[in-house]
Amino acid sequence: MVQIIKDVDELKTFLKAAGCKLVVVEFSAKWCGPCQRMYPLVHAMSLQYRNVMFANVDVDDSRVTLFSRLKRAICCNGSGFMGEPIFEFCGADAQKLEAKIQELM
Fold this sequence. Notes:
Helix content is about 40%, strand content about 25%. The chain is an alpha/beta fold. Strands 1-3-2-4-5 form a five-stranded mixed β-sheet, sandwiched between helices. It is globular.
């Protein structure tokens, strides 16, 4: 299941709840075609990889200025809100994301 994140507090709570689990956060926008194509694929991955925590942040709907500056990024991060990303990429490449999830699990 993909959790919808609306603000920094929700993101912090989500990351804290993840503990040591792998976290995938998808930053997207409703107007973005590639984002809309990726969402069902990310949702399917969330059902397949139950030991990975998935979240989505709509960069236009969120109440966080950092999110509003982002157009599209998917970031797999360990626990900790301000930690260094393990892996980050831009674009709609579901195969690359899945390969990285498998590598980091």
